[in-house]
Amino acid sequence: MIRAYKFLMRPTVGQAQALAQMLRDHCSLYNGALQERRDAYRHVSKTTVRYGEQSAQLKEIRAFDPERQGRWSFSSQQATLRRLDKAFAAFFRRVKSGDTPGYPRFRGVNRFDTVDFPKDGDGCRWNSTPHDPVTRVRFQGVGHVRVNRHRPVAGKVKTVSVKREGRRWYVVLTVEQATPEPLPATGSAVGIDMGIANFLADSGGGFVTNPRHGAEAAARLEAAQQALSRCKRRSNRRRKAVEKVAGLHRKVRRQRLDHAHKTALGLVRAHDFIAHEDLKIRTMVRAPAPRPDPDRPGGFLPNGAGAKSGLNKSINDAGWGVFLTILTSKAESAGREVIAVDPRNTSRACPPCGHIAKENRPTQKTFHCVACGHKAHADTVGAINVLRAGLARRNARKG
To answer: What is the pTM of this model?
Structure first.
């Protein structure tokens, strides 16, 4: 299995400048390759330029500009061209499927923050000084950069990436590992129901509170964005304001990830089988369609867009998608089983009698079956139904 590690780097001032220059030069290569594709399609009878053709030109580009392009790893430059090729492949895939195409755009220097090295030892070397107690990673054109390795790396390093986040530099490793030993069996199964008031409820009656990291930081973020809007463009004051806004966003993202990792780890350690709803989050956060007013040309009827906007913010703030991805990954590493089930009627079906009705849930929090009178927390009922559906699906697979 493949696992990723992310470590903070501690470059010197000179190394940080070299890393920044590497990003600038790869950004220039990316934009130049994009311009070549645009010009070929527009002016040369709609000719399509492929990755192979652009990769073959790298030797000439490096010889023509040895100071900016010749000093960096050939393989990392090929990875940058593959990155552009993937962007075009995704663009054509969206065109064929009828989605919003999103043509690949030119990247500004401040929006190109990652350089990939497809193979450890080709332009880069992880743990380049193994006899030194301090872990270092070597990059061609930069040197041996100190790494804050906060945990051991188990397995064979396959790829290495450099990533810039604000003023910090990170190295990201993808490592090939043997299948790990599964955790000891607990004999427990659980269903979970994702929510807004509570982050999740489990079938045993437990709840995980929703930390609402985005809502907690909203006031500080609003003040920082207002200060940014008052700054003069290209000024040092504006640059600092941009860094402050970006720093607040990064903090919220890290808080969400930390909460998701801890919650998922607790579930994986406690249960052998976990069932959750197969949520279509992208569909859930869509804005409601406008409602034209037939009596007033050019006018529209209320469609609840304001309330839906607040709900969408809460869903995005909860980070369900990130949590479910982390849960699936941790379960795979621990030898646990995770199954996604259809969420329809999970909050309307009565666990004791099976009666399904909209009236069974008079409020967001309360479940009261109109057939048998069963009362419980609505989220707990949903989790119980999710668990039953997951167990039924697992038994169907085995049968």
So the answer is: 0.86
